[in-house]
Each structure stands twice: as C-alpha cells, then as structure tokens.
Amino acid sequence: MSLVAILFGALLTLLGLITYFAAVFGWIAARPSPTALIPCVAGVLLILLGILALRPAMRKHAMHAAAIIGLLGAIAPLGRLIPVAIHQGLTASAAVISQVLMSLLCAIFLVLCIRSFVMVRRQRTAANSGPK
C-alpha cells in the first residue's frame, strides 16, 4: 500500500504543477495563483508518508496518516466547490477541474486505504483464531 500512496502522491503533485504552470505560461485563461499548488502539498505529504510506510515499523502509523490526508484531500475541495456551485453555478474552469480531480484522486486513494485496512484486520483475526 505504500507504493500506492507514493503513486497517488505523484499524481496529485503532477496535477498541482500542471495547473499552476499552465496558468503561468498562459496555456489556460487564468492568472497564476499559489492555491493551484494545493494538490502538490497533499501529494508531497503522501509521497513522504508512502516512503515512511516502506519501513515495517512505521507502516501502520504512516498509512493511517496517509488515509487522513486522503480524507482531507477528498473533502476540502468539495467544501469550496459546493458553495460556489450553489451561488454562482460551476463553469469548467481550470480551478474547478483541478479541485474535482484532486477530490476524486483522494477519494479513490481513501477507498483503497480502507479496503487495505479491512483486509489486514481480517488476516490478523484469521491468524489469531487459527488452530492452536
């Protein structure tokens, strides 16, 4: 699961960099904003936690922290999109697309984390309740 965290971290970092530099170089009709790099922050954190999770002693804590980053990354963009959608309606701008993609990537990562946690728990329970 640590490699999955690193992969999703890389995807989020790439998303933030593409969005930011697309605005810097004028490829999209938006002015460059440091907030476009928010997915990079979540991505770098996931990469670091994924690297920490490669160590067996740190795996459980690092992956739980990564799941929290995934949860926040899934919820936070929606907290910004929903009020805008209610009051102004959504247009397919770079910011909206970036926020939706960040929320989607983080939600997928969170589902994979939860699935992994459940599988580990079942394996541990089966190992403890085996023949004695």
Explain the overall architecture:
The relative contact order is 0.16. The mean pLDDT is 89. This protein has 132 residues and is mainly alpha-helical. The chain has 4 helices and no strands. 78% of the residues lie in helices and 0% in strands.
What features would you highlight for this structure?
132 residues, 4 helices, mainly alpha
Low-confidence residue ranges:
none
Q: How many β strands by DSSP?
A: 0
Mean pLDDT: 89
Percent range of helical residues: over 70%
Secondary-structure element series:
HHHH
Spell out the blueprint of helices and strands.
Layout: H1 2-24, H2 38-53, H3 59-87, H4 94-128
Helix pairs in contact: 1-2, 1-4, 2-3, 3-4
Quick summary:
This protein is mainly alpha-helical. 78% of the residues lie in helices and 0% in strands.
